[in-house]
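Researcher: I'm preparing a figure for a lab meeting and need a structural model of a single chain. I don't have an experimental structure, so a prediction will have to do for now. The sequence is pasted below. Please return the structure as tokens so I can convert it later.
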Amino acid sequence: MKARKIVLLSLIAILLCVYIVQIASVNRGSVKQVTLSDEPDKFILESAVNGKVVLSKKDGVWYLGENQQYETLESEVNILINAMSSYSILQTVSKGGDEILYGLDDESKISVSAYLGDTVLCAFDVGKDASSVRQSYIRRADSSDILLVSDSFNSVFNITPDDVRVRTVYSCDSNTIKQAFLITKDVGVIQMVCNEEGEWGGFINGEYQENMTSDGIESWIASISILNSAGWLPDDYQPSADAVGVIMFQMEDGTSITDSIYPVEGEEGRYIGQSSVCPYAFYMSEYTVGKFLRSADDFSE
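Model: Understood. Here is the structure written out token by token.
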């Protein structure tokens, strides 16, 4: 009786092993690898939430917008390219009709198309990410089947124009700046001048300030030599409030940059910037504004 139990348990164990091997083989066989034959030079992403996002390549540079108005972050575009260029279809979860369940209804889906020239390389609707790590649901343009794929496509393709647009307003070498002005209502005009020996001196409303040190001024000059936006406003935006500060600096080659900073009305701690070297208005973080708008005492450090 004991020997029969041992034989029976051994047979069960063998059958279980065979079943596991068969399941694994079936699963491996059902996975389909999708690979694009060419690299896209254009993406169109459309969703009810983010609207239409067009990314296209020109002369080796990726741009945002129907008319290629704005330069983009290449690293962000590469994420899209890598996700679409190669992915695995793990299984078909539905033959259609379950759009809401999988985030593929009109209000939730993200329609993605990749092109090379005028040729569509790939097109599908992206649903929600699956509960499993790095898996999501898609529906290809030529089918009603809802597929489980091996990447978090919703996280990848759920982007806004601000997510991919370059944030740099300008960047210059602070060593080339030779004169600067900081104008505020409270203080008036603070002028800073660099002499031929590279030493800085300061004036407030035309009067020389002994307490404004060269190191203190130079530190401020370095902080204003780079400006990044905290988000872009519509192209035709014009501030309605008065500027809280204006910064102007001149380089040794005679060129100059002027920045104006405005408060966002009704939103404490939020600011809008405009620069003479950029045609678009942009948001400025409170931290950045704090670096640009200094009191006279800050230059004595």
